[in-house]
Amino acid sequence: MTPNATKSSTTSVSLITFSAISESVPYHKLLLMYGGEIAPEELLRQDANTADGTTILYGIGNWYFVNGQTERARPLWQKVLDGNQQFAFGYIAAEAEMARATLPLR
Fold first, then answer.
1. pTM of the predicted structure, to 2 decimals
2. What value does the mean pLDDT of the chain take?
């Protein structure tokens, strides 16, 4: 690696500021959870009637699902669907997962 490449890398990392993270708090929390720094149970108390809560609840459900805990994922996705955030990504994704769950296995 050249000295200029090292300087460029350091500059790029320093550009990530708290304001960049504060605009994506739910995603940041989910990244910490996926990285093992936060337990899913620490994030469960979310309001499904907010976009942030919908995002986090869907993400926790997804984490359970990919880790073979479908029985823990589906109630979280249903909680998202019981909320009022129909235009949030977490809601749309939860809707797709629940629809997929009712399809017969191929």
1. 0.77
2. 84
